[in-house]
Amino acid sequence: MASVTLQDITKQYEDVTAVDDMNLEIRDGEFITFVGPSGCGKSTTMETIAGLTLPTEGSISIGERDVTDLPPKDRGISMVFQNIALFPHMDVYENVSFGLRLRKYDQEEIDRRVDQAADIVQLEGMMDRMPKEMSGGQRQRVAIARAIVREPDVFLMDEPLANLDAELRVHMRTQLQRLHRELDTTIIYVTHDQAQAMTMSDRIVVINGGVLQQVAPPLECYNEPANRFVAGFIGSPAMNFLEGEVVDGGFESEYTNIDFDPGTHGVSPGQEITVGVRPEDVFLEEDSHKAASPTKAFDAVVDVLEPMGKEMNAYLLFDREVEASAEGRGKGQLLINLVPDTDIEEGDDIRIVMDRENIHLFDRASGDAITHSLE
Amino acid sequence: MSEKDQADLAAMEKTDEPDLDRGMVEAWAAKMISNPDRAYRATFYVATIFFLVTTLFPFYWLLMVALTPRNRLSSVGVLTPGGFNPGAFVEIFTTLPFHRYIFNSFLIAVVATVIVLFVASLAGYVFGRLRFRAKNVLLLSVLVTSFFPPAAFFVPLNRLFNRNIDILRPLMQDGSLYNTPYAIFIPLSALYLPLSIFILMTFYSQIPDGLEDAARVEGTTRLGALFRIIVPLSAPGVATAGVLTFITVYNEYFFSSLMTDGRPQSWAPMLEGILRFQGEFEVLFNLMAAASIVAVLPVAILVIVAQEKIVSGLTAGAVKE
To answer: Which InterPro entries match (chain B) (predicted)?
Structure first.
């Protein structure tokens, strides 16, 4: 049980800055998730907390202790790795008790704690198996048992579910939440999967290019993203972005215009902005009552339909001249989320409205959010 | 297509062609091409026979010589001994303290192997797992040193070991390393270090980083992770390096004979002992042969034991990459 404080952490590899001046306060007992695309510095940040890499600048404290120069073993942390990293030449008991044996605990205490940890992750009766005789999920549970058996102050998890198959991943996700409730320890969790970040965390730390983007509870990141990157990264399917300019009566772009009063929303005419709207905040015109405050209707063409069972994704083009981009959602394309039995076909002309309450404006140059609602 | 071509094609399609007029060698070659397994088997037998003749037969003949009584040495046959005298295997220990010579060589080889494995493990870890400037230059210089002929080091080392060094006085009687095992295993360890560094470097570099990180988080230092995780998982490599070093040092003659005066109590090695069966007027070939056979035993035992210890594939499956 301890808080973790990062102060001005910078990590530089020869000519690459992996982490850039990061300041972060992680509260005692918190489940916090570092999330970002691969190569964004989230793992490096965790490694500096673990002590596996030393920061180029800055300091780290765990609880009241400054641990910047301590080796990993003296930091009161334990870690679960993406590649599981069980010692292949040791059986489950030896793996789990490795840290305790190194710290010269007496045998009774070791046995008691190993039993307890095995009980928590449901590994009873597997103590003399070798890692290679176990399934992926079992190995992962051994790795977790090895981490909890030392009763660390802080728990570090580096993409622990990345190598499991989809079904097991969802199962382990709830297991980890249960574990957090049981242990009540600070957990720092690294993932590139925003769904894991959303579902498990007390707070999310969104990182991109080594720079902290936003630190907030999951729903806040979702509803009030601090900038365009967070808006696009959190939420699935991702937010739609329309690039355009502020004019006297609102927003204008090649295909759309939205009426609003620039003054009250902190923009001025001539400013280049990006409008962000999530797929679930766009409706067909006949369903416009579902939007709290619908905009006027736009014309669109249905390009591709993706029925998902409980919902349906529809890729739209603003007019028939738009060419669908091969890389992600390009200009003039829009993704919306519909109920599965909506009666439309690919190629249909439709009219859509957006929910003004959930339209985000971002400054085009800086990417910073300007407002999260046009009401 | 001419008629001749068509006839050739027809001949090619036929698999066995008994009527074709071919020489013996040609027919044999054709058979081998159509049935490569036979060719492989033939090559295997040729190689095996070559190995038996060049390596195992001399050893067999050594045994024949050893079993021949001294006065009948001139009549030793190619396949049979010139008599039966197993007493030679006892005589070698009574005429000379040959066991002491073997013990000297064995001890020197064990100490050198331990030193080499320890130092090469540290070096192999650094070269195999860390990134630092001038790594390749350093590695290359280690390699180049191993190319020098051992004789190049002999003169300065011999001068050094024959000198009385005051700080060694509490350890050695006269403060000189000459006639001590130190004078043998120190230069030999250094000479055979590069090979082991290369072997271990290759093995250590293949252990996933995650395992070392896990060990360090769990409570070891880097050094602890090396000896608790990386070395055990590289067992085949460590065994290979160890066996190679042991055998080379055990069989080494140049340094071992020149750094001592040849007496068993001066830590003279096994080879020196074998040569001691050469008297002033007579060469006791049967005793030399018996001694050679006995001297091979420690190495043979070691190889058999190490082979059982070499368990590969330990890492397989435990780490998902």
So the answer is: BP-dep_ABC_trans_perm, MetI-like, MetI-like_sf
Task: Tell me the nearest-neighbour CA distance from B310 into chain A, angstroms.
Answer: 13
- CA A339 to chain B, closest CA, distance in angstroms equals 40
A62 to chain B: which residues are within 8 Å by CB? none
Contact B220 A102 (CB under 8 A): yes
Pairing of strands A257-259, A272-277: unpaired
Cite the DSSP H helix spans in B206-284.
209-218, 222-225, 231-233, 235-251, 254-258, 270-275
> Which pLDDT does position A327 carry in this prediction?
65
Domain-located, residue B211: yes
Q: In sequence order, which residues have a C-beta less than 8 Å from that of residue B12 and are 6 or more positions away?
A: none
Q: Residues near A351 by Cβ (< 8 Å), separated by ≥ 6?
A: A284, A285, A297, A298, A299, A300
Nearest partner of A32 among A201, A192, A167, A185, judged by Cα? A201
Exposure class string for B252-279: b at 16+ Cβ within 10 A, else e: beebbbbbbeeebebbbbbbbbbbbbee
Q: What pLDDT shows up at residue B20?
A: 61
Instruction: Compare CB distances from A73 to B220, B229, B233 and report the shortest one's residue.
Output: B220
User: How far is it between the farthest Cα atoms of chain B?
Assistant: 98
Cβ–Cβ below 8 Å for B210 and A131: no
Query: Do residues B133 and B269 share a domain?
Result: yes
Q: Which of B180, B186, B157, B172 is nearest to B268 (CA)?
A: B180
Residue A62: predicted pLDDT? 93
Are residues B136 and B253 located together in one domain of the fold? yes
Q: Is A85 on the interface with B (CB under 8 A)?
A: yes
Amino acid at B287: L
A110-124 pLDDT, tens digit per residue, is 999 999 998 888 888
Name all domains of chain A by residue range, CATH numbers in brackets: 4-225 (3.40.50.300), 240-371 (2.40.50.140)
Residues of A in contact with B213 (CB under 8 A): 50, 52, 72, 79, 81, 85
Give the model confidence (pLDDT) of B280-317 as tens digits.
777 888 888 899 999 988 888 888 877 765 544 333 33
Residue B259 domain flag: yes
CA distance A62 to chain B (A): 15
Please, what is the average pLDDT of chain B?
83
Reported ipTM: the value is: 0.83
* pLDDT tens string A50-67: 999 999 999 999 988 999
